[in-house]
Design goal:
The protein has twelve helices and ten strands. The longest helix is centred in the last third of the chain and has 29 residues. Strands 1-4-5-8 form a four-stranded mixed β-sheet. It is an alpha+beta fold. Helix 4 packs parallel to helix 8, helix 10 runs antiparallel to helix 11 and helix 10 runs antiparallel to helix 12. Bound molecules: flavin-adenine dinucleotide. Flavin-adenine dinucleotide binds next to strand 1 and helix 12.
């Protein structure tokens, strides 16, 4: 197993670095590097820049307009983007529904949906979870009843991330209530402008409007918007979840945030010295850095196995748990680094260009909100408890 990057991969890293340095708009970069609020326009603008370069769909094959990169190239690309302060690519279209449409969609669906996803002309959201169905996803209850060339949909989805901007939602719906849980599910693509859809905000504990409830009341969905076979949706749902968990370790983002932590801890002081020189604080920062380095090596081992055409197995669960724990630990240290200023939760001050009263240094403003927001990492994408179940069964054989 060779964990070093090849000369070609290093040259590719350099090419990405130079492109991002030239092309990433300064205002967007400023927001990302300082933890300020991003708007939907920021994500769209950046995606359009990447698309114009031919780098819009990192994991996409060339036949669908992607660059046809290896997994290692995708990893390098995402690491460089994170380090430079580019926004995360919104995954629901590009990384979730697009692979499903490529693999299982009809040619008409591929032609209709994929180009608009790549060009960021249409925003997608994910309609999997329901109030009673999260970890136990196969219990979804939203009903779709066939009526000629349409399905009539009734029910509720929840935790729908950025659904307030979405043009389309992909949903798991129950088409056969009599069948065994996994068997009676279908996968529908639903236009968010359809009559009968209501989006209601859920405000999370950091004060953000990031997630929503989406209600469906007699919503008519053309049968041609079903992906694949009726009642076979669970197969497509699982395929999508596999894509949801790629690059879940978030190593690039963790490295960037660790650098931010060190920067802030060298500006803050304790007993007249930089906080970063305080033995207790420094040892906690060092522990996170050690964990991150170990995780990076594990990630490279998974990439190396993938390059040898071995599909990632339950290792993805290790990456998810450790990656999210590290990101959460960094947000905790960031809050502690600024002392009492880490208690402020003032969303208005997190807008770029805020001119109101300052409470503490500029960099302290978003830290509490980011700390609270990052609690989500161990819940979504398959909760960390569920990942531990997978490890105990698949790796430890318990
Ligand atoms: C910020 C955020 C954004 C999200 N965005 C989306 C989205 O865009 N689209 C979407 O469809 N969903 C989304 N989700 C939903 C997310 O996928 C679910 O929250 C997640 O799957 C957990 O389901 P649940 O909330 O119903 O919790 P539950 O499944 O009810 O779990 C509650 C607790 O019990 C634990 N638990 C459950 N089952 C087991 C078990 N078998 N063994 C051990 N422990 C267990 C869980 O780990 C958790 O701690 C989002 C969630 C959050 C928090």
């Amino acid at each position: 197993m060779d964990l070093n990057f090849t000369p070609e991969e290093l040259a590719f890293r350099q090419e990405v670095r130079e492109f991002v340095a030239q092309s990433l708009p300064a205002d967007i970069q400023h927001k990302v590097l300082n933890g300020l609020v991003l708007h939907s326009d920021d994500y769209v603008r950046w995606q359009k820049i990447l698309h114009a370069k031919g780098w819009g769909g990192t994991g996409w094959k060339k036949e669908f307009g992607g660059p046809g990169w290896s997994t290692t190239q995708q990893y390098i690309f995402e690491e460089e983007l994170a380090a430079a302060g580019a926004p995360r690519m919104v995954p629901f279209g590009l990384k979730m529904v697009a692979p499903v449409i490529m693999q299982y969609g009809s040619p008409a669906q591929q032609e209709r949906f994929l180009p608009k996803i790549l060009a960021a002309d249409e925003w997608w959201c994910q309609g999997y979870s329901e109030p009673g169905s999260g970890s136990d996803l196969a219990s979804v209850k939203m009903r779709a009843v066939r009526d000629g060339d349409f399905y009539i949909c009734n029910g509720q989805k929840t935790w729908t991330t950025l659904g307030q901007y979405a043009d389309w939602i992909f949903c798991l719906v129950r088409t056969d209530p009599e069948a065994k849980a996994q068997r009676g599910i279908s996968f529908l693509l639903i236009d968010m402008k359809s009559p009968g859809i209501t989006v209601r905000p859920i405000i999370t504990m950091d004060g953000a409007h990031e997630v929503n409830e989406v209600w469906f009341e007699d919503v008519r969905v053309p049968v041609e918007n079903r992906v694949g076979e009726e009642n076979a949706g669970w197969t497509y749902a699982k395929f999508l979840l596999g894509h949801e968990r790629t690059n879940i370790a978030g190593i690039g983002i963790a490295k960037r945030e660790l650098a931010r932590l060190k920067r802030i801890a060298s500006l803050e002081t304790k007993n007249g010295k930089p906080l970063l020189k305080d033995p207790m604080f420094a040892s906690r920062v060092a522990q996170v850095e050690i964990d991150l380095t170990a995780l990076e090596i594990t990630n490279l081992r998974v990439l190396s196995a993938e390059a040898a055409h071995r599909a990632p197995g339950p290792e993805a669960s290790i990456l998810k748990i450790k990656g999210t724990e590290i990101q959460q630990a960094i947000t905790e240290l960031l809050v502690q680094a600024v002392g009492p200023y880490g208690l402020q939760l003032r969303r208005e001050a997190m807008a770029a260009g805020y001119q109101g009263d300052a409470v503490g240094p500029f960099y302290s403003v978003p830290l509490a909100a980011n700390y609270l927001n990052m609690r989500k990492l161990s819940i979504y994408g398959g909760s960390n408890e569920i990942q531990k179940n997978i490890i105990s069964q698949m790796i430890l054989g318990l």
